[in-house]
Structures are given as structure tokens and as C-alpha cells.
Amino acid sequence: MMNIGAPSAPVVSPAPSWRNFLNFGNPFRIFVSLALKFTSAFISGPSKTGEITQGNKGRANCYESASSSMATASPTSAEATAAVNNEGLNLPTDALVDILLRLSPIYRRLVRLVCRHWRDVIDERTPQIQPPKVLAFFSSSKSASAYVVDDLAGGKCRKVWGVSADPDTKTSVDVTMVGTCNGLLCLCDNKKPGGTVAVFNPVTREKLRIPKLPVSYRGGYSYGTRDTYTFG
Amino acid sequence: MEVDKGKGEAEETRKVAEADRDTVTLKSSDGKLFEVSKEAAARLSTVLAGMIAGGSIDDNGTDLKQIGSEALENVVDYCNKHANSIPSAALISSSISFNTAPFKEPEEWERKFVDRLSHDALFDLVEAANFLGMERLLDVTCHKISEMMKGKSPDQIREVFNIKNDYTKEELEEIRQELAWAFYDD
């Protein structure tokens, strides 16, 4: 792999942990598709997962689990939790789950702010919207690949799709990503005039060629222009 | 067909109940006694149904130490109102459709029943319903609480439900940031 160096790397560098991630490959073109729909995404980073597991231990009385973690945080907040036990809302957890399930998923995310107990109950007992992940697509004349970032904070990612040029023959790769939707990738191989468009499912590794579209193509004169597709 | 069958079954239960004694006496944590129809109690509360079937009902007042008199009064009131306002056939058909619609809308009288309760009484009633395994009453009370929450900010919810904010500032900020993503907010 060639190393192009600095100019291409900083195309997208929202967070420091991203730089490492973006440094592999030698992106002549970097397409980073942020698959952000409304949800909390990557939020559930490593630190928070830890807390949730902590909450898991004592589920019989969730106020207790909250207070035990509070106690380690600071002595004053331990008093605060004691007050919750005495005068606050003390619904049976099953009933609280029942109530929370009646709320819309988005609003349910918002009320995680109410207190630790509610957050734990929401995280453990109510269905969550699958957090969207970041998809990064790299392409050069030698290879093209798509990566999914599973853990943005920790920089963990996995390759979900890739092609590379055969080193023996002098073929080149010219694949662009048209778009992504519901976990599917829509890719366009530009080697043929007008491009060959295919939808790829990274999980099942199935590929579906899109029938040739009736696009106008004017022989060799279209050099340097590219047909535009969208997918979503 | 099913309607008739339902009526028949309910009447049969009633007959069985009458054969013995048609009310049960319940005793609250503070020692007050309440009479409730045996049929309604058995129909609406799985716990009381089990106690009646198992013969662990005390004629001098079955002790329900977990339930205060105000909550128990509401429970009994609910049972009586339920027995009067809803024909048993309607109840049976509603229990059949229960699987398809997990949360059934409360009836008008049930709405009124919970609307007049104070917050504390409502929450006590949820606890009592939960303890007695009264699915329908739990449904109605939880529905009411979820309605009370709607449109309220987390701060307002804490205030209304008297919940202490036990987050640290940092944690709160962290969750807020997650929500910024969630709501496309900057």
C-alpha cells in the first residue's frame, strides 16, 4: 500500500480516536458516511457499560443498587439516595417497566435523565433502538473497502466489504459507494461506462446487481464526468 | 355464542361463591376491615383468587400487611365498581384480545376512578395492585401515570413524582450529549 501521507488523512477527523482509524489504507478518496439517524449512537461507550453492569447486581431493589454506586461516588450523594428511599416515588420495578413501555422510544431515552434507577430500568428492561454505527468507505485505484465502527470511542471497527486489485495483472479498482440504507451498501463499479450498480448485504454477503438503468451515455465523450446515483 | 358462554361461566362462579359466603373480608396494614365480593376479588386479583381457592381466607379479616387502608379502600372500591359497571361478558372478551393489544385503553369510569386520586394514593394503589396481582387495575393506574408524564421534561418529572436526582453533574452532561445525537440537536 502506498502512503500518501498527510494531505488525504485529515479529510474527516472529528475526534482524535478517529485519526488512527482513518490512517489505515491510503485514501485517494475518502467517503465517510455517517449513518446517523435519531438515536444516541455510540453513546453506550465502555465507561457506561460498566455502570450498567454494576446496576445489574442488585435488581431486587434498584434504589439500593443506585445507592451503592452513589456511596462510592461521594458521601453527600449517599444521603440523597436515602431520601429517595424514604419519600420519593417507590414504584415496584415491574410497574415502572409497564409505565415506561407506554412511552415512545424517543421520549423513553429522554427520561433516562430522571435518575439512575430509571436509566437502569430503561436500559435493561425496555427495548432499545439499535444504535446506528458509523460506516467508512475507502476507495483508491488499488482497493476499495467499507468499515463499520462498532465502538467509536475505543476505535474498534471491522471490515464489512472490500475488493483489491490483482497485483499480477494491471487491473485497477474504481468503486464508489452510492449510499447505504438499513445496513445495505449500494456500490457502483465505474469501470464500465455508466457504471455497474449493485446492492450488497455485508451480513449475508449477498450481492444483488441492479439492472442496467436507462441512463444516457455518449460514448467516449463522457470522460471525467460521472453518472450520479443516490441510494437511501 | 361466546358472550352467552361467558355469562354462563360467571353465573356458575357466582353460584359457587354463594354456596359458601359471597364476600371476603380484607384487613389493611393498619387493621381496618373491608368487605369485597368474593367473585370480583377472585376475578380481578390472581393473588386473592389463589387465596380463596386455597382456603387461606380468614373470615375475621385476611391480613394484607403490605397494603395501607387508603389503598385497600381504593382496591375494594375498584372491585365493586368493576363488578357493577362491566358485564362479565365484556371482561371475558377483553381478556381474549389481551394478547393482541398489550395495553388496553381504560374505560371511562376507570379513567374517572384514577383521576380523582392524589399522587400518593395513585402510587400506593399501583403497589397494592402489583402486590395483589390485579392486572387490569395495574393497567389502568400505569396508564394514568404514563399520561401524567407525557410532555414533561426530566426536571418536571422529578418534581411531580418526587424523585431525587442522583446523577453527578458529569453523568448528566454525558447523557445529555447522547441525547444531542438522538435528537439531532446541537
From TrEMBL, chain A:
InterPro entries, sorted: F-box-like_dom_sf, F-box_dom, SCF_F-box_component
The F-box domain, residue ranges: 91-131
Matches recorded under SMART domains: FBOX
One matching Pfam family: F-box
The protein's name in its UniProt record: F-box domain-containing protein
Species this chain originates from: Digitaria exilis
UniProtKB/TrEMBL annotation, chain B:
Keywords: Ubl conjugation pathway
Biological processes annotated in GO: jasmonic acid mediated signaling pathway; protein ubiquitination; ubiquitin-dependent protein catabolic process
Entry-linked InterPro entries: SKP1, SKP1-like, SKP1-like_dim_sf, SKP1/BTB/POZ_sf, Skp1_comp_dimer, Skp1_comp_POZ
Pathway: Protein modification; protein ubiquitination
SKP1 component dimerisation domain boundaries: 136-182
Pfam families: Skp1, Skp1_POZ
Keyword Nucleus on entry: no
Region described as Disordered: spans on this chain: 1-21
Ranges where the SKP1 component POZ domain occurs: 23-84
Family recorded in the similarity comment: Belongs to the SKP1 family.
Assembly mode: Part of a SCF (SKP1-cullin-F-box) protein ligase complex.
Purpose: Involved in ubiquitination and subsequent proteasomal degradation of target proteins. Together with CUL1, RBX1 and a F-box protein, it forms a SCF E3 ubiquitin ligase complex. The functional specificity of this complex depends on the type of F-box protein. In the SCF complex, it serves as an adapter that links the F-box protein to CUL1.
Descriptive protein name: SKP1-like protein
Organism: Digitaria exilis
